[in-house]
Design a protein that fits this description.
Shape: globular
Strand order of the largest sheet: 3-4-2-1-11-10
Distance between the termini: 79 Å
Number of helices: 11
CATH architecture of the largest domain: 4-Layer Sandwich
Strand content: 15-25%
Radius of gyration: 25 Å
Structural class: alpha+beta
CATH class of the largest domain: Alpha Beta
Order of helices and strands: HHHHHHEHEHEEEEEHEHEEEH
């Protein structure tokens, strides 16, 4: 009788959820079948749920560690996927398991913890969260800057599609990553519209090019942490005469095929963050940072630099992987000082790369916007962690060029 009551309640719940009415005979048959296979079904479900819950809980707990090993830091990336998996498991556990049993709570509580933990990280990158950067509908041409940041994928041969994006969106700055000599040749058609260029073609997946309609000065190409990983630093002048410090980055990721640890990437981000925190002019940092927006390192970058993230309150703008909709996260970023408001931000269509291009349009307001804050403040522990990351690679923020 207890078995029948348990599954009767579950069957009625399923009917209400999916609005699929059943006749009396079907209803009785389902109850009979459910009761007959009670123990076997519960055992199978527990065998299915248990490894998934253990995996989710392990992924959540391991990401708390400050270990820089690539396989630990990999758990920073698919937080949205973990969140969805936890939500599905919570629903399945509520529907199919008996909440009067200890086994239910041993599965449900870790799943609920994993769901809440993953939600805490990604919630700022949803539309229910307040904006960090104020929206503006006023486009001042003399103080506006439109930027396309894109990792082209060096083996990609669809350069014409990227050029069509440039023609359609008319960015003031085009930043291309993974560009080699072949890509440099293909993009030569942009030279008339973009008279200011900085070129660093490489065949190691870390080439960089910057094309600008606005004047660039004091430009340098630096290899801040690794001898074959460049970054570009320049001073851009808006038509209004306002100067902006620009830093274009593409550090190598922690992975089994590149760096066994994240220390090189983390050090580059931290040294740039420390170099811009006291800048007396507006700052923009953009590029493929090979890190997600919600990671500990990116949050540390934001705390130290005091730069703002225009995605907060607007969406994730997942730019990688363009070919797999179910495994995407935000790897391409744009951060800026509180001198700007956001006019537009969007992810552009697929053009053959494994990354989507990111389009951002900012409007420089004035220094009075400096009272805007990201809400993230670096405490003593953050400063210690930042210094440890620099020391591990024997680098300093003083090595980052200050074009202003």
């Amino acid at each position: 009788m207890q078995t029948v009551k348990f599954y009767k309640s579950r069957f009625v719940l399923l009917q209400l959820l999916f609005r699929r009415p059943a006749g009396k005979q079907v209803y009785a048959d389902v109850l009979y079948i459910f009761g007959f296979i009670r123990f076997g079904a519960l055992l199978i479900l527990i065998y299915i749920f248990t490894p998934l819950v253990i995996f989710l809980l392990s992924a959540s707990l391991l990401s708390l560690l400050r270990c820089e090993k690539w396989w630990i830091r990999a758990f920073d990336f698919p937080r949205m996927q973990f969140l969805i998996l936890a939500l599905i498991l919570l629903f399945a556990e509520l529907v199919f398991l008996d909440y009067t049993k200890l086994s239910f709570w041993l599965l449900f509580l870790p799943t609920l913890f994993s769901f809440c933990y993953q939600l805490w990280w990604i919630l700022p990158y949803t539309k229910i969260y307040p904006y960090e950067v104020e929206q503006t509908s006023q486009n001042d041409p003399d103080n506006s800057i439109k930027i396309i940041t894109t990792n082209v994928l060096m083996s990609n041969r669809n350069a014409d599609k990227l050029i069509s994006f440039v023609e359609e969106y008319t960015p003031d700055i085009l930043v291309t990553l993974e560009t080699n000599h072949w890509w440099e040749t293909q993009l030569q058609s942009l030279e008339n519209d973009y008279p200011y260029q900085i070129s660093c073609p490489l065949d190691n997946l870390y080439g960089m090019h910057v094309f600008s309609r606005y004047a660039l000065s004091k430009s340098t190409i630096e290899f801040l942490v690794e001898d074959d990983i460049p970054s570009i630093h320049t001073l851009l002048t808006l038509p209004s005469g306002q100067d902006i410090r620009m830093h274009f980055l593409h550090p190598a990721p922690p992975s089994p095929t590149e760096n066994e640890e994240s220390s090189e990437r983390d050090a580059e981000l931290v040294m740039v963050a420390k170099s811009v925190v006291d800048a007396d002019i507006p700052v923009i940092v953009t590029g493929d940072l090979n890190d997600v927006a919600w990671s500990t390192t990116t949050r540390l970058f934001r705390k130290i630099s005091k730069l703002l993230d225009p995605r907060i309150g607007r969406g994730m703008f997942n730019t990688f992987h363009a070919d797999y909709w179910f495994m995407r996260w935000p790897l391409d970023h744009l951060f800026h000082s509180p001198h700007f408001k956001l006019y537009d931000m969007r992810r552009l269509p697929h053009f053959g790369s494994d990354h989507f291009a990111l389009f951002t349009q900012l409007v420089y307001v004035n220094s009075r916007s400096k009272n805007v804050s990201s809400g993230l403040e670096a405490d003593k522990e953050d400063q210690i962690l930042a210094n440890e990351k620099l020391s591990s690679e024997e680098v300093s923020e003083k090595e980052v060029p200050n074009p202003s």
